[in-house]
Amino acid sequence: MELRQLRYFQAVAEELHFGRAAERVHIAQPPLSQQIKRLEEELGVPLLRRSSRKVELTPEGARFLDSVREILERVEGAAHAVRAMARGEEGRLRVGFVGAASDTPFPDAVRDYREKYPAVHLVLRDMCTLRQLEELRRGEIDVGVIRLFGQNLRGYRHETLLREQYVLAMPRNHVLAKLKRVPLEALDGIPLVLYPRSSQPALYDTIMTRLREQGVRPVIAQTASTKQTMSALVAAGMGVAFLHGSAGRMPHSGVEYRPLVGEFPDVELVMAWRPENDTVLVQRFLEALRRRVHSETAPGR
């Protein structure tokens, strides 16, 4: 049994006229009649009653027509889904992102992407950089939006979205809030709220080294895994924190932000993906990120 035979049968069953059915499927009437006959022989059941005046469906033919319609609809649906996936318009896309990305053009890019490709099932997962790289390696996410500092991205494709400096977040009534810019040496003896070392070991160690080089004895008051928790602890007066510069886009109540003076690491926001997963679906998402970052960081904004 072939799909073309099912299409021929559907045309005859709906037209109840071999001539009109032949025109509909663009073949001559004799081969159409032969294909229907072969279909009936294969099934061992008459599907049509033919006479010189009319063509009618047998009860078996009417039941078979329902199944044929369902089969052909599913075949057409499968073909449409595959073509749409090849165009990056359908499918499932799993994206990991660091919490810091929420203060960048990333959320706007996600909204742009969802509006343009509503049929794509987009799965967003908030996780640290090290976990993203591990899940990328295992194929559990398709794209990672990470904060790069010292990680080895050999074996991944990657592209820098943003490069930014840290600012110092402090309680609104903090003594350092009187300054427009805060020298690193002014942090000696000041309680700090930091990310745990396990989330970014190289970055943590570099920050500690830079502080000690400026004669600062770091006092770790609290650690927190997210920018939101760090900001809340700062607002509560637990200490000051180093936050990425874009954190000021969505300021936290009771928190002031000041640029730092002195040699301090920059951190890149990077999108990474596996070469073997360089699909149209992935590229459409990366394009949305690029467009939004470009529009929001263009001169004059």
Low-confidence region ranges: none
CATH architecture of the largest domain: 3-Layer(aba) Sandwich
SSE-based structural type: alpha/beta
Number of helices: 9
Strand order of the largest sheet: 8-12-7-11-9-10
Q: What is the CATH class of the largest domain?
A: Alpha Beta
Q: Percent range for helical residues?
A: 40-55%
- What number is the mean pLDDT? 89
CATH topology grouping of the largest domain: D-Maltodextrin-Binding Protein, domain 2
Describe it for me?
The chain is an alpha/beta fold. The chain folds into 3 domains: 3-86, Arc Repressor Mutant, subunit A (Orthogonal Bundle), CATH 1.10.10; 91-144 and 273-297, Periplasmic binding protein-like II (D-Maltodextrin-Binding Protein, domain 2, 3-Layer(aba) Sandwich); 166-265, D-Maltodextrin-Binding Protein, domain 2 (3-Layer(aba) Sandwich). 42% of the residues lie in helices and 23% in strands. The chain contains 9 helices and 13 strands. The chain has helices at 3-15, 18-25, 29-43, 59-86, 106-116, 129-138, 201-213, 227-235, 280-297; strands at residues 48-50, 55-57, 91-97, 120-126, 143-148, 157-164, 166-171, 182-183, 191-194, 219-223, 240-244, 255-261, 267-273. Strands 8-12-7-11-9-10 form a 6-stranded mixed β-sheet, covered by helices on one side. Strands 4-3-5-13-6 form a 5-stranded mixed β-sheet. Strands 1-2 form a two-stranded antiparallel ribbon. A hairpin with a 4-residue loop joins strand 1 and strand 2 (55-57). Helix 1 packs across helix 3 and helix 1 packs across helix 4 (59-86). The protein is rod-shaped. It starts with a helix and ends with a helix.
